[in-house]
Structure formats: C-alpha cells, structure tokens
Amino acid sequence: MTVNPPSLVSRRRGGGFAAVCAVLAVLPWVADLSAYAHNQLTLLYITIAGVLAWNWMGGFVGQVSFGHAAMFGIGGFVAGQMMVHVHLPAPLCWLAGAGVAGVFALGAHPMLRLRGPYFSIATIGLGEASRLVFTYWEKFTGGASGLSLPIDADVRFRLYWWALAIAALVAAASYVIRHSSLGLKLLAIKADVEAAADVGISATFYQDLVFVLSGAVVGLTGGLNASFFNFIEPNDMFGFERSITMVLVAVIGGLGTSLGPVLGAVVFVLVHNYLLSSYPQLHLGLYGVLLILIILFEPLGLTGLAQRGVRAVERARARKRAAP
Amino acid sequence: MARLLDMIVSAVLLAGLYATMAYGLGLIYGVLRVVNLAHGGVIMAGAYLGWCLHEGFGLDPYLSIPLVMAATFLLGVVMYQGLVRRLPRGAAGGPASLLLLFGVWLVLRNIAYLLFTGNDQVIRTAFASRAVPLLGTHVALNRLVVLGIALVIAVLLHVLLRRTMIGRAIRAVAQNADSCTLVGIDVNRVYTLTFGIGAALAGVAGVLLATIFSFNPGSGSSELLKSFVVVVLGGLGSVYGVGLAALIVATVEVFAILVLPSYLTTAVGFMLLVLVLVLRPGGLFGHRVLS
After folding, report:
1. What is the pLDDT along chain A (324 residues), one digit of tens a residue?
2. Which of A48, B119, B165, B240 has a CA 20 to 30 Å removed from the CA of A313?
C-alpha cells in the first residue's frame, strides 16, 4: 500500500494564485493601462522577484545580507554587455547574467561560514568592494558614465510579461521552498546550526545552495532592470541603496514569510511613488524609521499585522458564538 | 629603506585611529553580544559634532573631544534605553538588533544630509599642515596628535575596565549577566553605560578621523568594516589585542598600496575581514572577553 504525501499546495491556494497571475497578465489589454501604470507594474514585478529571492537567504536561512546589490549589478552588466556586443535575444542575455551572478555568489563561499552579524557585516564589505571594483573597471561597466543598451521597443513592451512570469515563478518557488522539506531544513539551520548538523543537515551545503539560487535570481532581476532603463551605471546598480531596498521591502512584508515580500513590495512601490517623490531628501530616514518601528512592534511586518487581524476576527466570532 | 621606514611610521600613526574606532564596537559586542551596526553612523556623527564646534565656535577639535564624547555618550544611552532594550528577550543578538541599529544608522545619515548636505568636509586646524621630524622622516603633526590621543584613550579605557567598580561590573556582566543579578549588579544600568561608553568612543574616533581624512554623511561603512576587522582580529574585547590588531590592519592597508590601486583600500579591509574570519574566527589570541 502506498501513501500519497499530502500535496504541497492546496487546490484553492494554487487556483487563487493562478487566477491572480492570469488577471495581471491580461490587465494591459483589458484595462487599457497608461504607459505609466504599465511601467510601474513592470518595476513592481522586478522588485518582487528580487526581494523574494533575497528573502530565501535573509528570511528562510536567517542570514541577513546587506550586499545583494553585488549580484544585482553583475547580472545587469553581464546582460547589458551581451546585448551590446553579442546581440543575442534579451532573455538569453538575462539568463547569462543570472548565471554569472550565481557563479559569483558561489565564489562567496568562504563568507558563508560566517553566521549572524559576522555574515551581515561581511556582506556590507562584499557590496562596497564590488561597487568600487566595478566602478573602476571601466571596460566592463563604462565607469561613472555608465553603459547604454541598444533600445528595443519590442523587448521593452514585452518586459511586463517577462517580469510578471519571473515574479510568479519566484513566488511559487518561495512558497514551495517554504513548505517543503528543504524549507524545514533551512528553518532548522536558522534556529540552530549545530543541532541541524546533528540531524544531518549540512549548513554549508544548504547555505551555498540558497545563496547561489538567491544570487542568480537577483542577478536575473538586474538584467531585467537593465532592459527596463536601457541605461545602467555601476554606482546605481551596485549601490548600497539597492541592497538596503531588498532588506527593507522584505522586513516590511514579513521577514522569512513565504509571500510577505510580495505585500512589502506593493506597499514599498506605492510609498515610494506617492510619499517619497514629494520628500526625496527624507527617504533614507523614512527607511530607517520604518525598520525601527517594524522590528520593535511587529517583527513579521505586514504579514504579522494581517495574522493579528485574522486572529482578532476569529476571536470576535468565537465570542459572538459563546454569547447567548 | 627610508621608504620602508616611512610606511611603518604611517602604519603606526594610522593604527591609533583604527584602535580607537574599534574599542566602541568591541566593548558593546563583548558585553551585550550586540553588533552595533550604527557604529559607523556614530563615528560620522562625532566627526560632524567636532566640525560644528570648530566652525561655529572656533574650538580646537582636540579640545572639543570631551564635549563630543558627552554628546555621543548620551546618544548611546538613548539608543540603548529607547531601542535596543525594547527588543524581545533573546532577539537582541539576532538579526532583529542588526536591522534595528541599521535603521538608526540610516536615520543618522539622513539627519546629517539634511543638516550638512552631502559635501565632503574636513576639519582644518592651524597646525594641520605642520610636519615634525621623526625617526629620520617627517610626519604630519595632526597624525602624531591623533596617535597620542588614541594612546591616552586606550590607557583610560584600560584603567576604567580594570581599576574601577564600574569597570569590574562591566566585565562581570560580560562574563555572566545572570550571576550579576544575583550579587546585586543592576545589569540594565551596566548595559546602558556600556552602550554609552561604546558610542562615546565612536564619537572620539569620529573627531580624530575628521582631522585627518575628509568625511560626508555617507561615511561610516568602511569605518564600520575596519572596526569590525580589528575587533575580530583582536579577539573581541581585549584592549591590548585590539591595539595590536589595529596595527596589523593599518600595516596591511599601508603596504597594500604598493601592490594595489588606491581605490581598492576598502576592498583590502573586506578581504582581510573574510580571511581573518575564515582562518582565525576566534581572533589572533583566542576568545578572551575584556581581559
């Protein structure tokens, strides 16, 4: 007799996810989106994919990285250079960027022996060092004057669906990782490396694996970002701000939750467009205050808030039922 | 040969600054097991405080150190009492405190941008450009003063930790906070004091830095990185160890200029950090806490 393992994704959830993706996919035709909305949604999908991938490392494994901009920049510049010199179709260039970013992440293997604050500070170093190296490596990045990509209106328009597809894939992957045995292993490593090793979970292997996957996906979003703007510049692509944004969006949405970062990205893009465009000189401080408030009052971010809301509703219902 | 001597002298002079930068980070980590990610931000704040006092009141930066220390001490106390203390128990050492203090750093940076714009600043004193002969070479007077102050700070810190009741309490809490509660030490007060002293040390480092190098509101990440390298190399918390480690880091950095282009000095700090953490995670002298 065989026992079927319970399916990873319930039919209802899977269906809901597919429906949301389908609606977003037909949205540009049905709703007659303005160019602005079309662009903002594209950027949102790119952000979502990147932050979800950051969350694999920062949330699932609990190794907070302040240096993912390194992979973002490498993915972007490799894709950009390939478009300029090799003239392959854009998706192949993005994939190549993702691959190189993944290999680069694997090169960070010695760093992954570090844990907690050691790892985090090393990632600050990784980010800053790569920013410097790539800013001065003018042949590859164009230095401070940046790199202009060939303009391809077709790719630019279709980027909406590419970004949506990639974000959906990464979201599905996040959910599956979180709820599979791999997710449990990562959780074990996060809780206690030594105890995890005692039950045969090699932190070295899984951290490498997750860092490479996370780096490759972030590299992929770097390539998408390059195609989106048609111009990239190392100080921006490798900037500390890029890394901070990933940390912040994940924390807003819910560090370590499977889909919280999606929520975080939506709120972040809204806040970024409506609030920060009016007060650009305050954005760093606002990020900082947000981080402080969330960590102090709701470490699970918006996901935590939502869970609280759900619990409150359930309690209210139970009380109503108990009352005569 | 003269060039070699030159470089050794400049490494020694730089080491004083690096040691001062690292004490604050090491002290807070040694006692609270919290990495103060806002350390670079406090250094930057100290630099601006010294600069303001110099520009506004014509106060010599080296004389303004007590004032800057008092201000950054208060900043540290507020950071601990207002934020770090409020973290849920057990979360203080984890990613929560990192993210919290990172938030503080961003806020400090933003305040500095608002007040002082993003321009590079440096504190220029009347005697900054004077050179004094030393061991057959000439060194800038301000670098010599910085080394002198760094030595004074090191001695004071050593005396504070070894010879005073407060220092004994701090070292006791670093060893075992729970036992301290049993013998009547107010652990929370010790934590507050430690955070304040750590921040004050970062403040001094900021002033010293500002008299040698230029700085802007974005400064701090390379200072944080170097402090961290020094602390890890020096074995987290020992005053002598930190001094020696600072000397090693400064020497490596000075000599790296021989083989690497100058813009890569930050990368040198990073490579050193990874090397040290991978090869000698316990520091050069093993794990000794505040010995």
Report:
1. 555 555 666 778 888 888 888 888 888 878 777 888 888 899 999 999 999 999 999 989 989 999 999 999 999 999 999 988 888 888 899 999 999 999 999 988 888 878 888 888 888 888 888 888 888 888 888 877 888 888 877 888 889 999 999 999 999 999 999 888 999 999 999 888 888 989 989 888 999 999 999 999 999 999 999 999 988 988 889 988 889 889 989 998 988 888 889 999 998 888 877 776 777 778 888 888 988 998 888 888 888 888 889 999 999 988 888 876
2. A48
Question: Are A110 and B274 a contacting pair at CB < 8 A?
Answer: yes
Q: For residue B130, what are the contacts with CB-CB under 8 A and spacing of at least 6? A: B140, B141
Residue contact B87–A295, C-beta within 8 A: yes
DSSP structural state of residue B215:
B
Stretch (H or E) spanning A148: strand A147-148
Alpha-carbon distance of B146 to B150, in angstroms, equals 6
Q: CB-based contact (8 Å) between B102 and chain A?
A: yes
A67/B contact by beta carbon, under 8 A: no
B28 interface with A at CB cutoff 8 Å: no
Which residues of B fall within a CB distance of 8 Å from A129? Answer: 264, 266-267, 270-271
What is the helix, strand, coil percentage profile of chain A, to 5?
Answer: 80, 0, 20
Identity of the amino acid at A283: H
The number of domains in chain B is 1
Which residues in chain B are closer than 8 Å to A295, comparing Cβ atoms? Answer: 87, 96, 99-100, 103
B7 lies in some domain: no
DSSP B83: T
Residue of B nearest to A285 (CA): B107
User: What CA–CA distance (Å, rounded) separates A244 from B118?
Assistant: 19
Give the domain range for residue B212: 16-279
Here the CATH number for the domain that contains residue B171 is: 1.10.3470
Determine, yes or no, domain membership for B288: no
Amino acid, res. B105: W
Cβ neighbours around B166 below 10 Å, total = 15
All structural domains of chain A with their residue ranges = 14-274
Residue B264 and residue A132: Cβ atoms within 8 Å? Answer: yes
Which residues on B lie below 8 Å from A300 (Cβ)? Answer: none
